[in-house]
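yo, YibE/F family protein is done. seq:
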Amino acid sequence: MKRFISPIFFVLMIVGIIGLLKYEHAGPDPYSGMHELRATVTGVDNSALVEMGTARIGGQHVTAILMEGEVKGQTVIGVNQLTGQPEMDEIFHPGDTILMAVRINDGKAVEARAVNQYRQGWELALFGLFVVILLIYARSIGLKALFSFITSFYIIWKFFIPGLLGGGSPILLTVVTLTLLTVVIITCVAGFSRVTVVAILGTLSGLLLALGLTLFFGAKLKMAGMTAPFATMLIFSGHYTLDLLDIFYASVILGASGAAMDIAMDVAASMNEVLDKKPDITRNELIKSGFNVGRMVTGTMTTTLLLAYSGGYLTMLMLFVTKGTSFTRMLNFKLVAAEIFRTLVGSVGLVLVAPITAILAGFILCGFKEIKKASN
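structure:
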C-alpha cells in the first residue's frame, strides 16, 4: 500500500495545479475585457492586404463561427492586423481553427479580433505523449519529474516574471527563484536524502559562482539587455523602468541552471552508488571517483549548451555566411557577443558544479561513515 501513496499524492498535486491554471484563465482578459475563444474560419477577405515581398501589411477580415463559451455557434467578423513582420504575423484560411478575442454583451458577440492559429490542442497532445513515454520508462520517478516540471513552470510564471515586471531586483529574484527550483526539482526526483542535500548545495554553489562571473565579465564586455528577444516591445508596452541588463544576466543564469542540476545529480548519485558498492572506500578515493564522473558529464554538457544556443540563432549565422562577414566582425557583433557570453558563462558554471559537488559529496556521504567507523 505504501508504494502507491506517493504516486497518488503527486497525481493529485498535478491535477490541482492544472486546475488552478485553467480556472485563472477562464474569464475575460483583465486588460482588454475580451474573451479568447476558439473559432472556425468560414471566409476571409484579403482585399485590404498589401504584399511586400515575403511580408504583408494591412488588415485581413476573417469570418468565423465561435466554437465555445456562451456565444457558441454565433458568427463574427474580426480583423487580423498584419504589421509586416513574418515571424509574428499569420494569414488565415477557410477551415482553420483560430483563437478569436471576443467582447461579449448580453450574451452576444459584439466585437471580435483574430489572434492566432489555435495550436493548444496539438500542444496538449504532444505534452500527453511526453507524459506517457516518461511514465512508461521512468514510472514513479517520471511522475515526480512531471510534478517538478509543472511546479517549476508555475514558480517562474507566478513568482519570477511578476516580480521582474513589478520592478524587483532581477539578480535577487533569480537567486531566490533558482533556490526554490533547485530544492523542488531535486527533492521531487531524489526524495529526502544526503544525495539530495549534496546535489542542491553543489548546484547552488556553482550557479552563485557563475553569477559572479556574469556580473564581472558582463561589465567588461559592455553587454546590453536590449539583445534579448522582444526587449524593445516590452519597453514600449509601458515598462520603461525595467533594468533589462540585469534581466539579461538573470536569463543567462536561469538558462544554465537546468544543466547544472543534471550534473550535480549525476555526480552525487554516482558517488553514492560507488559508496554503496564499496563501503570501505576512503573519502579521497570517493572524491576522485566523483571528479572522474564529473569530467565525463561536463565534456558533453558544455557542447550541448553550444548546440542549443546556436540552434536558436541558426538563421543569423546563415546570414553572416551569406554576406561573407569576417570572423572578427561577427565576434564583435552585439547579438553574437551576447550569445557567446551566455554560452561561456553557462559552460564555466557547469564545469564548476562538478568538482564542487564531488568535494561536498566526499564529506557529506563518506564523512558520516568514517565518523561512525571511528566511534566503533
